Amino acid sequence: MIPTITAFASSPDRGRGQARDMRVRWALEEVGQPYDVRLVSFSEMKQPAHLVLHPFGQIPTFEDGDLTLFESGAIVLHIAERHDGLLPGEAKARARAITWMFAALSTLEPPIVDLGMAMLFERDKSWYEARLPVLRDRVRVRLGELSVRLGDADWLDGAFSAGDLLMVTVLRRLNASGLLDEYPDISAYVARGEARPAFKRAFDAQLAVFTAASTGR
Ligand code: GTB
Predict the structure, then answer these.
(1) From the CB of 44, is ligand 1 less than 6 Å away?
(2) Secondary-structure percent of the chain, ordered helix, strand, coil, rounded to 5
(3) CATH level 3 topology of 4-85+198-215
(4) How far is the CA of 168 from the centre of ligand 1 (A)?
(5) Per-domain residue ranges for the chain?
(6) pTM of this prediction?
(7) pLDDT in tens, 19-56
(8) Given this structure, which CATH class describes domain 91-196?
(9) Which of 84, 147, 157, 210 has the fewest CB atoms lying closer than 10 Å?
């Protein structure tokens, strides 16, 4: 039996790999675990059949036999714990890699999502022009700190880990903001993640969904 994940039937990001199924796909590709994808529409996400899997009516979910998970970070951790390749074997290095997973999702992602949401949904508000620089500066604070820690290393703590996988997917959400251009070392870090064959397979798979939906094939 292979796991099944859920993803947008028609992703609002138009195949740019910004939705959170991308990180789950990438993790599965990194560890060589085949998977099925069930595509769901926005209305299907709010129906009882999906709410049983995801109490907040969102994607992604992960089903493997009688185990159902939601929350992309928990899903990636589950995959990383059950396969080689995404977490170090040594206990302290493993704990540090998991720390970076949490840092990506709870320290970096919130200000990045706040900025993205404002850019998408608040442009017509009277306060948008005043709020935007505040949101951008909040992200800059974190990028500056991350840049210092990364230094000239390829990855956050030794070998590539699930911490890097989540961090790269979170940072990619800044693509439309132009902010990554201010941090060439972080841009290069993201590019290293995107250059991984597993990332490319995951990206192509989610892009194929968008292409098929938009061409009717
Ligand atoms: N904390 C949860 C997790 O990490 O799994 C958050 C899950 C979540 O936000 N899912 C979104 C969703 O299902 C899709 S990824 N939204 C539908 C809903 O809430 O009704 C968020 C997302 C959506 C679109 C873009 N985009 O267009 O660029 C990027 C990211």
Answers:
(1) no
(2) 60, 10, 30
(3) Glutaredoxin (3.40.30)
(4) 16
(5) 4-85+198-215, 91-196
(6) 0.97
(7) 999 999 999 999 999 999 999 999 999 999 999 999 99
(8) mainly alpha
(9) 84
